Amino acid sequence: MVSAPAAAAADSALALNEPAGASGTTPIKDEFIAKLAAREALKEKNQEYWEDDPYKPKGPLDASLKKHTTLINKLRSAILTSSADTLIKEIDGLTLTKYVAEIVAATVEGITNSKGGKADIDSAVEVISHLHARLAPEFLSSLLPELLNVLAASNPIASAATPATDRDKEEKERVVRLRPVLRVIAELGLVGAWEKARGGKANKGVVSDQVGQEHVFERVKGLMAGDPTYSNIPLLVTFLKSYRRAYLGDPATSHEAETNGSHSELVSLDLQSKFRHLFETYFNTASKALVKGQTKLLEQDKKNYEAYIKAGEIFEDRQNAYEKMTKAVEKLQAGVQSLADLLNLTPPKLPTAASLAKSGLQIVNTGSAFDKDGEETLSGGIWDDDEERKFYEDILDLADDVPPTFLGLKTNEEPSVEDTAIQSPEAKPDSVYSEPGETHQDADDGQPGSVAEKEQGLGLEGVKKLNLDEGDPLQSGPAARLSAVFAALPEANNRTVIDKLAVDFAYLNSKAARKRCIKFLGTIPRNRTDLLPHYARFAAILNKYMPDIGIGLIAILDEEFKYLQRKRLVSELESVRLKNIRYYGELAKFKVAQPHTILHVLKVCLEDFTGPNVDNVANLLESCGRFLLRNEETSERAKAMVDLMRRKQNTQHFDARQKVMLENAYYQCNPPERVAITQIELTPMQSFIQHLIQDVLVKKTVDKVLKLIRKMHWEDDAIVDFIFRTFNEIWEVKFGNIPLVAMLVYDLQKYHPDFSLGILDQVLEDIRAGMEDNIFKHNQRRISTMKFFGELYMYRVVSTPVVFDTLWSLIAFGHPEGLPIPGRSSEIDAADDFFRIRLACTLLDTCGACFDRGSNKKKLDQFLTVFQAYVLCKAELPMDVEFMVSDTLETLRPKMTPFKTFQEAALAIDDMIVAEPVEEEAEEDEEEEDETESVGDNGRKHAGTEEDDQEEDEPVDDDEGASDARIDESDDEDEEVRLIGSISRRDEYDEEAEEDFSREFAKMLADTTEVRRDVRKAAPIFDQAVPLIRKAQHPANDHSNAAAPSDKHMQFSLLAKKGNKQTVRTLDIPLDSALAINTRSQQLQNKQEQEQLKRLVLQNERRLEQNEQAAMEQSIRNRFTPRRHADG
């Protein structure tokens, strides 16, 4: 037990002076020396109570709730202002042990809820140390993480979402709240408040009594790293004022301590060096930001002056932006100056207007997106591909197809006044436009584009200011042809058609036609941005010889752009802005629009980089940014503007949509250099194996590929592993060739059974892993794997129970109790995730047709019932998934009625469970296993031809056995070859079947004869006499009273009637009589007909079986390959 805290230690702790800067009379160095003894005493005290039992005051301790509540309230409200003696006295009179959590919470709240008054950090730290002595180790173990979390959770970026009016107030409150927290944590780090063994992994190797100081270093570093706007400079200044000497050290004093050991350091020299380097790095970064901000401020001031000269006033938004920027620069300058004073560093030299004017710099290129050698950083050329280059550069020369007179070129004759105007490349816009006050109605006002613009109420002054006076109107013939050209232009979608229309227009060239063309090209519907490249090419072809068309079109876009800038807040004009900006970009790429025009548009949008102008900049860079950056005339200025955009993007707040647009625009005009995909180096053998499976394998080459794979060096583990990996990466194989890979697996299992078993195990593992991970990018792989699994079953590599287990796992895995229920989602199978349905349908489409009889049919019916319930548990199905499910059900069970609601499916499941006896199910499983074992070595018979209801010894036809027995006759190596096939027994089959048929047929006839005899004896009533042939009867038969016939006679029975009595008389007719001969002939004929009928019945049955087998084989053959049975 440690004795009570020494009074001397308490007195020295209370005697701690205020930090420098508060009184301003005691230097920081003297203050550190004055507090050194008190801090070392508290440090020793804290470390002792980490190791020993808590301190117990003498005398009785009060355990009442009222006293504890009073103490907690004082800690919550006055821990930073009350006297340490008063609080310690109250603490020593209470038990405290039951209220540790409440005391911790009150202490944290008392430190963080400071109102900005004078805070006695030393008294607060002494109270905390005393509470640690009373409540060790629970108190500090709970308090320190809470205080560290307060600093870690404070992020100045979070306040960016608040309005600008409240942001400054909120920032001031945050700084005031965090100041005492930072000071308390720093002081606790000096007095050893952290336990020696609590350094953790981050502090591995650190001296035990410096663990807390390392935590202080991390929190200070966090304040710097998470502060791009330098809002935490006041907190860092507070830290330096109070603890610069303790944590950063003093170079002269540190050197003196090393030489003569005059006094000790609370923080190690290595950690002091880390703190100093951290603050110096932060100071340098803030200095650069200050220089950059000052430069921007001067540039903005210059722009404001230019705007004032042009417009006579400075707009309010521009003025507000300037004032905001000025305030931010002044605040940052004050912070940097304070840091420089406390760190004994030289503050940066700020640029002035005179220095900028002297250097001629307009934009400071710090942090530029381009290197000094900008050409090296711009990857690729102006155009993406050769087709795009031809579209924009290979412009038709009208002089090659149109006579010079139509183009206004000089000839021997005097050119007309009209042609002279055309020839002048310096034609001014004034010749095309009327005065702004003029209005004019034109006969072409009914053009579709013009009407659309007017109906949309855009009020575009560019269209209104056009001088539509055509002078001499066109005659009816040329006017009609011109209208036909304009009507065909919206349908032109390739270079050839555009060039042809340009030639047609050139033949109609006149001043009136050109004005109609300008108006038509300038009034594109707002929703037809797809026409812009083709219209721009049309204008570029004509502009060479008719420059007034390009000038007029640019003038329309300029007026439209000015109007849209005035209407920036009108959201309905978004599509018009998009059309206007993209039209500029297309004309720039055809060099119809001059470079300075496009750069001026970009500059105007960047000056007010908010709202719609953000979209304008992004659309302009997407349209022609690549061209501007790589064109020699505009490269330098375009780079500077792109840099300006990137800097504003980093400093201003944009929503997520605008950020994505700007990023896409930047990387589209200046795509980053990408490292080429590294090809995996394969050995020649590995490349050959991959080539066989992925390229050579087709339906006709299956046997050849199989022989080559069998000839591989199967004793080499590396080769076997690569073959195994190639087979398992089934998604690398063409989807149509997956059945062929399954065929190879079947064939290889005869020679390498472990290999085929490993393939199956890996496929099942991939299916299970896919359900566990459920990664979207692996969906195509999972589809291919499931298809492969189904094809393996078709070749009997997989047994039926495994298939059904996989089907059930698709709808049950990941759900509680294995049952999906509506409204109860799963983390790996959400209600809006429909991919397992696709997997189930893929497996059922592959091998579900095989389960059409016997017990397998019943199992599939049960699964389909539960599967429909699983589908109904999902959200509304997409159309493609719904069609997939319906197609699968219709293929497998055409007569099944799909369930509409989950309740219907649930009732069907209940009925299915009730109606299914357990014993019957067990018997069916045993029968299925017996049938599976009875398959034997019957070759590659398809699983779909399996008949569960046939007897186990049912033979196989000769043709089937002959076609399935495959002998590797070309293999000249001495190796054991297993012949798979069955011996034909057609003759035995025919004889046995014929004997069975004759036996059954004779028995049927005999039974029928006996019945007829009984009926005849019971009621021998006939209307007329009929001669009957008597059968040979047994002598003991009581019903016969006739004697046995002789060898030379044939017995006939004569039925006679006398009155109401009928009698039968036996007559012996000689064999050579006509009656006997005819009767004998009739008997022989009847016997032949009977034999013929028997043969026809047997042949018909055999033909039906063959047709059924052929139909099944044909259906399998249509699915890319014949199916084959493996050994059961």
From TrEMBL:
Keywords: Cytoplasm
Any single Gene Ontology cellular-component annotation: cytoplasm
Subcellular location: Cytoplasm
Acidic residues compositional bias, start-end: 919-934, 946-962
Secretion signal, residue range per the UniProt entry: none
UniProt xrefs under PANTHER family: NONSENSE-MEDIATED MRNA DECAY PROTEIN 2 UP-FRAMESHIFT SUPPRESSOR 2, REGULATOR OF NONSENSE TRANSCRIPTS 2
Protein name: MIF4G domain-containing protein
